[in-house]
Amino acid sequence: MLRYLGRRASYSLISIIGLVTLVFFLTRLTGDPSALYLPLDASADARAQFARLNGLDQPAIVQFFTYLGNLAQLDFGQSLRQNRSAMEVALEAFPETLKLAFLAIALATSLAIVVGSLAAARPGSLFDRIASLVSLAGASAPDFWIAIVGILLFAVGFGLLPTSGTGSAAHWVLPIFVLTLRPFGLLVQVVRGTMLSALSAAYIKTARAKGMPRREIIFGHALRNSLLPIVTVAGDLATGLVNGAVVVESIFGWPGIGKLMIDSIIQRDFAVVQSTILVTAVAIFLLNIAIDLLYAFLDPRIRY
Amino acid sequence: MTGITLRLITAGLLAAASASYAMAQDATAIRIVLPEQPANLEPCGTIITNVGQILAQNVVEPLTVIDAATGQPRPKLATEWSQVDPQTWRLKLRDGVTFQDGEPFNAAAVAFSIERMTGGKLNCNNMAKFGDAKLTVTALDDLTVEIKSDRPEPILPTLLSVVMVVSPKTPADKAVNDPVGTGPFRLKTFNTQTVELVSFDKYWGDKPKVTAATYVWRAESSIRAAMIETGEADLTPSIAIQDASNPETDFSYLNSETTAIRIDAAQPPLDDLRIRKALNLAIDWDGLAQLFGDDIKRASQMVVPGINGHDDALSPWTYDAAEAKKLVEEAKAAGVPVETEITLIGRNGIYPNGSEAMEAMVAMWQDAGLNVKLTMLDVADWLRYLQKPYPENRGANMLQMMHDNNKGDAAFTIPIFYRSTGNYATVNDPALDKQVDEALAATGDDRTAKFKALFAKVRTDVVSDIPMFHMIGYTRVGKRLDWKPDITTNSEIPLANIGIKS
């Protein structure tokens, strides 16, 4: 196991170094930040001074080696926009995204397992049809539309929830609802499909013949054997959410890393772009390790 | 598992239903929702909208302020000023002023703030409005300073409106996020979600009715408007026209922005005066105005009313499609290559309905017999065409732009656009340069008259641009506040001017 973890870590390190290099040069290709940071009527002298003060007057390769040297000393650079450490900016935003992502994926997976399993237990029933309809609608509806309609209905119309922001438990309801809907829809389809195959397997027929209770057959035996594809899809969806829920973060004013990343790209805040990508890359690496370990836990035949 | 989940959801909804999301706070504390998070709170960046709307006149104050109605400088931290000679001004400073950190406000603090801004040790956005004059500040006594410049500066008191005076304890060589000034409010918190200001007890002036202000930010205009409607916030600037639907809370105001098309007058066929006039005449201005709402004001020059040099009597070009076609035909007959493709360079998101306006104008110019094609660019690419040096081989082109001058004087507009050395200029006329320099050196009524003459000349004889509209902003103000936006709202929201209805 330890050897496996070491191997995965070294592969990931190589990927992260490659990613950091790629991101460094790609961000430089987007152009000169002084065009965006200084007012339109700033003089050429002011632009030259801006470039000098921020080390942007050096050739890209010189800037890259300076960046690597600083990286080795855990200096991730200064945010041009916020006048403070870029890594501090990224690490401040990341937990906000992580909390949203964790809650949304946990809720979506739990609900999808229950709904998908019950739908698969009675294929063609009214419950199955409603579950399919709701899950398809959830998987297809655009986030921003659900978010705006949710605000108009529950905040402006009924006054039950705040429009946006953070601070109380109620502030979580709409963002979590919007973020949960799509993973829920997709996972219900996956759970239903895998459970349908599992429930028609010979060992399930044997269990039924032996008179085992229906609940134990579905949730104790069939579900356990269907979990691997569910974990794979849920893991993939979680990875997407850890990268940042840009639409939800923008509409609800949630200070997460997705919105930060997009804003930094648009504003050419190079150090923050690099730091946010580094943070999410490490998080995704850790998430993938956790998913691999979960495979081994769920299926004793898998050993590393 | 289902039971637990359902119980959790029910509990959450019940908790939400029992809560009230209208603000439960001190009646004199207000909440303002801005369109954008301020990137930083550096006082030298108050010309940036979201920094200025929080800091200017609230936390930090300048030496002078510009009167929104007259465009003239009025006293703030400087109480009076006089010009000793063309290059020297003497300022008397306000007595009894203290910085929020307890430091005294005096001549040394003013010298420090000017040196910090102009010294080149930090990125200072406000320098773009200040110009590049080299200043020497001398303290004559504790409350008198003499400012010498390396060239005549007839409008130095106006320029000083962008110098935010900061505590001498502020680092001189790096930008800060914890500004300390002399304003009626001091900064309490600044994080990724809010900025909080609270009243400064030792403020030199009248005590504002507002005692605390919390700033939050939401990009979506509809969300910001909804926050005022539900009582989650009290004020939001810059909402979209379609969200300004409640006459009780939504105010339109002439902001300081003017939209226009700049013509590259050096490139054929745009180097022909008849073609440039035809471009102005070919537009159905009343039809185009419908894109921007009923309150929009047609522009004849690049500064808004209230700015020194604006000429109310100067009439805008009117729509005359037949005359436009005739001028194009005349130019063609005289050998002007009118069939040459002219690229109209637009900027994505420059203002609401900006791309729709460009499409409509292209169609109208094509009807007049001109070969105009539209290219929409993002800001960074668009900037290459806005500022000198312009791209080589750019060909015949026109540029969509919006110019903001809320600094009281046409000096912040005319030399940039119309002097041959101007950063945005496309004309190169020594006679016009001379006229610009004379206007810039003039003072008082003579200065105003010279600026007006320049705008008239540009409108009728030079025609290097197509002024479109003086733009309108929309602001939603909660019912408990007594406040209306004006031309300065895009750059500052002084909390001291906000009343609270009892």
Automatic annotation (TrEMBL), chain A:
Q: Chief subcellular site? A: membrane
User: Which superkingdom?
Assistant: Bacteria
**GO CC term, one of those recorded:** plasma membrane
The UniProt entry, under InterPro entries, shows: MetI-like (IPR000515), MetI-like_sf (IPR035906)
Domain ABC transmembrane type-1 as annotated: residue spans: 94-295
Q: Which SUPFAM superfamilies match?
A: MetI-like
Q: MF terms per GO, please? A: dipeptide transmembrane transporter activity
Q: Where in the cell is it found?
A: Cell membrane
Tell me the keywords, alphabetical order.
Cell membrane, Membrane, Transmembrane, Transmembrane helix, Transport
User: What is the membrane topology here?
Assistant: Multi-pass membrane protein
Q: Does the keyword Membrane apply?
A: yes
- Keyword Transport present in the record's keywords: the answer is yes
According to the record, the segments passing through the membrane are 12-31, 100-121, 133-161, 225-252, 272-298
Q: Which family does it belong to?
A: Belongs to the binding-protein-dependent transport system permease family.
Q: Which PANTHER family match?
A: DIPEPTIDE TRANSPORT SYSTEM PERMEASE PROTEIN DPPB-RELATED (PTHR43163:SF6)
Know the name of this protein? ABC transporter permease
What organism is recorded for this protein? Ferranicluibacter rubi
Automatic annotation (TrEMBL), chain B:
Signal peptide coordinates: 1-24
The entry's localization annotation reads: Periplasm
Q: Which GO terms describe its biological process?
A: peptide transport
Q: Which Pfam families match?
A: SBP_bac_5
Q: Which Gene3D superfamilies match?
A: Dipeptide-binding Protein, Domain 3, Periplasmic binding protein-like II
Solute-binding protein family domain: from which residue to which, for each copy?
73-421
Q: Name one GO molecular function term.
A: peptide transmembrane transporter activity
Q: Which InterPro entries does UniProt cross-reference here?
A: Peptide/Ni-bd, SBP_5, SBP_5_dom
Q: Main localisation, per the record?
A: periplasm
Presence of the UniProt keyword Membrane in the record: no
Keyword entries, A-Z: Signal
Identify the GO cellular component terms for this protein. Answer: ATP-binding cassette (ABC) transporter complex; outer membrane-bounded periplasmic space
Family designation? Belongs to the bacterial solute-binding protein 5 family.
**Name of the molecule in the record:** Peptide ABC transporter substrate-binding protein
Please name the source species: Ferranicluibacter rubi
